[in-house]
TrEMBL record:
Organism: Nocardiopsis kunsanensis
Keywords linked to the UniProt accession: Membrane, Transmembrane, Transmembrane helix
UniProt protein name: Glycosyltransferase RgtA/B/C/D-like domain-containing protein
Keyword Signal: no
Record lineage: Bacteria, Bacillati, Actinomycetota, Actinomycetes, Streptosporangiales
Transmembrane segments: 12-33, 39-57, 69-90, 161-186, 198-215, 278-294, 301-322, 328-351, 363-385, 426-446, 458-477, 489-507
Domain of life of the organism encoding this protein: Bacteria
Amino acid sequence: MRLSPGRFLARVTALPAIIVSAWLLVTFPLLALGAFTPLLSAIFGIPAVVAACAVVPRLIPEPEEDRAPWWPVVLVLLIVVAFAAVQVAYHAEALVIRRDPASYAMYTVWIAENGALPIPRMHELIAGDDPALSYQSLAHYERDGVIWPQFMAGAPLVTSIGYWMGGLTGMLVTTPVLGALGVLVFAGLTARLVGVRWAPLAALVLAVCLPQQWVSRFTYSEPVTQILLLGGLALAFDALARYSGPGERWGRTHALAAASGLVFGLALVTRIDVLRDLLPLVGFLGLLLLARRGQAVPMLGGLVTGVLMGLYAGYGLSYPYLEYLSDSLVPLLIISAVVLAVTVAATVALWRAGLPQVWRVRWLPNAVAIAAVAVMVGLALRPLFWPDYGHGSDFTDQWVAAVQEMEGIRPIEGSRTYYDYSLYWVGWYVGLGSVLFGTFGVALVLRRLAQGRLAQWLLPTMLLSWTVVTTLLRPAITPDHPWASRRLIVLVIPAFVLFAVWFTAWLTRYCARASWAGQSAVTRSLPVVVAAGASVAMIGPTLITSAQGIMGYRQDVGTVDATENLCESLPEDGSVIVVDSGTASKYMPLFRNVCGLPTAAMNQPTPEVVDRVVGAVHDRDRTAVLAGPDWRPLEELTGVEPERPFRVVADMDPSTLMEPPTGSWTFDGSVWVSVVPPEENTR
């Protein structure tokens, strides 16, 4: 059978989620068993990925839209390739831990090199349990004599592929490719829900959006999460395209349903807050069961499998991180339990009666449409009536106050969260047109759903609307930008763009029907004018923000070379003691994870303590290496002339609170080391 453009695009855009989930399904158990090696990952992971790519896309049905041309498919692929090329060319080199990208990078390097967690302290190679030493640093928690890296394992398991293939640079260019695949998956979801011809517009708006470019240049987890959640929606659409009764034999719809549930669940392996995003899926599965759809049980089985793996990723391999998040995570777990219990109870209570026929309530369609617009209006007016305060962190308060001082914001209120401006953040990055069109679009979609129409939109609307509202109400992130834009890019911005494109398509068709009655050239050209005008209204502001923002330079350039030089300068039998608390927090993972040397911090170095620790290192027939940000204290403490093998001066992200980020700040990083071999005397 000839492969139509629509089916080709549907298959290609499902592949990223299929590949990532197949890889995670195999490699996460290997990591949990301490066997995440290149050889075992290739032996088990490559066949799993190949088999999934060979089987699952063939199950995808022919799209309902027939006679779709090839030009939208070509445009989508060109946008994706161009995005990947630009992001690879401008990829960041964030390896020094200041914020999350370098934390993920250090996580990746450790598991790619060692294949297991936790990270041993290797204290027996330094000075044993000397009380002057500590082993915890930024994004690395010391618990029960071992070190656990921060965050979930999903993204590092994927970026490890790049590290194995190309070292540090290979790892750093993996995320730009993942970001491009996120654009591809979003285009596929748009093609399914809106139409193939509208997929290039959606892909282009997302591709030029500053947060999509920004997270794709760093080793963030958002690109992987975006692929899985948007890919799960696309596969769920395919699985539900045909009715399947409860007694029907297992077929392609059941397999696709199981695959979509698994893809959704595995997103929890990448980010623990995905648990909130998946709550609407629980309710949707209850509706599927009440509707007697045969896809309900396979989808539920896939979801449970992925979620169980995600929970083990959190509580088995990242427990100190979840402990740190307990103030927000525990309420989320309670809410999740309540949603599950209510869904089960409601499903049991309504089992005989079946689905409530809400479309018979005549006032409901208009009510839900008005409610959707009212929610957006409320979010827009929120800064006037409900300014938000309270980070719950003294450090965050101090940082926000410092940024306020730099921006000249008065009064200085470090406790200000700026969460009430979250809808305005969306407007910064995709423009007022996308926000308005998206609002009108979701209102119309909800209205039609309440009328019993657009059934294929039910799950995307439930999941995306829930995530948009809950995220905008409480982004739960330090509010400086571009940092805070991370919260928007996985689902919030794609949701606004998707609904905006749907509204544009609806308005274009409406004008086309209206123009049929007219005979003038102006009337006949109205649909084209509307489509072009709406497209410019979405693309223009998005492009301007990116062009005027932080997308014109690479960040932390030179860090890879400096890190490699640092490792080459250290003796193979070195035991590193970092003698400055600030340097210890930022650079300890470089010494331990990348250079592979036992490393500890000495936060209050004195000559007597240094003598004792250096002597203990020498007693173990190892070379003592003292490191710090300045040469003078090292020379005074060791009597050895220090060298500076790590030196980077480069552009880095700015921080803004009340406007989109522009320009750059300067990252100035230095590491001096004094190598003290056993025959040397300190001081």
